[in-house]
Specification:
Largest sheet: 5 strands, parallel
Number of helices: 10
Shape: globular
CATH topology of the largest domain: Rossmann fold
Number of domains: 2
Helix content: 25-40%
Distance between the termini: 25 Å
Strand order of the largest sheet: 1-7-6-2-3
Bound molecules: zinc ion
Order of helices and strands: HHHHEHHEHHEEHEEHE
CATH class of the largest domain: Alpha Beta
Number of strands: 7
Structural class: alpha/beta
């Protein structure tokens, strides 16, 4: 928590002249588990390992697969007509990764979202090296939710991905036109219906012929990113990829 406060801009402006003295009195802590840190990192090595761990997954939807299953035989997406072609995720939505996603939704854990976005940005550079996206766009919240929650993890993640991978950010390119029910409360066909027509593109000309990276905290049914991808492709984007912190695979998980 102390480290979370340390990364706010107000702290950096007010406290930088005496930062080393403050570090002596209040030693830096991991922004996730609060373990003491010796270095200037934001997370301890244990938490960093969880976020940066690799798993065998479907290239199209990032669903975790047993290693004996060929990538193109993913049971989750082989019947889907999604308009995005790749999904990158830091891990499956369970255990501590699920905990991280839930914490990232809170304003006091923006630093944790920044770390997640930085690692996601490194993954983009490695795994999309053949075609680095031209723009990063976060999946938007409705503006009323943005005010109530005082943060948006998708926005913080997208900013960090943009910075790390040096990809231009279009923060407000897509807007949520209406408040939708929480996807996690609905069955999968209701999720598709829930997000149909829920988004709009603010401007489109710059998108023609471009590769767009959509960023969100979690993807489960894929209905939200599929709906936005459809709009982006209709507006002229030639390719859409998705990057999320965690890939959920079951209705009971979120
Ligand atoms: Zn930690
Ligand atoms: Zn898949």
């Amino acid at each position: 928590m102390l480290q979370a406060i340390r990364t706010t801009s107000a702290y950096r402006i007010i406290a930088w002249p005496v930062a080393s003295t403050i570090d002596l009195i209040l030693p830096p802590e991991c922004v996730w588990c609060s373990a003491s840190l010796a270095s200037g990192e934001l997370t301890c090595s244990t938490c960093h390992k969880i976020l940066a761990h690799r798993y065998y997954a479907c290239r199209r939807c990032a669903c975790p697969l047993p290693e004996v299953v060929p990538n193109e035989s993913c049971p989750r997406c082989h019947d889907e007509k999604w308009r995005f072609s790749r999904t990158l995720a830091l891990g499956p939505y369970r255990g501590r990764m699920r905990e991280a996603v839930i914490l990232m939704k809170k304003p006091q854990f923006e630093s944790l979202a920044m770390v997640g976005g930085k690692i996601l940005g490194e993954k983009v550079l490695q795994e999309l090296a053949d075609a680095i996206p031209d723009f990063v766009i976060p999946v938007p919240n409705h503006w009323t939710r943005r005010i109530i929650h005082r943060t948006s993890s998708a926005e913080v993640l997208a900013q960090a991905v943009s910075r790390q991978a040096d990809i231009r950010l279009k923060l407000y390119a897509v807007r949520r036109r209406r408040i939708t029910s929480k996807q996690g409360m609905l069955n999968w066909s209701a999720r598709r219906k829930n997000v149909r027509g829920a988004f709009a593109i603010r401007s489109g000309k710059w998108m023609e012929g471009k590769h767009i990276l959509l960023v969100d905290d979690v993807m489960t049914s894929g209905a939200t990113v599929a709906e936005i991808s459809k709009l982006l492709r209709s507006a002229g984007a030639t390719r859409v990829s998705v990057a999320v912190v965690a890939r959920g695979t079951g209705t009971s998980q979120n």
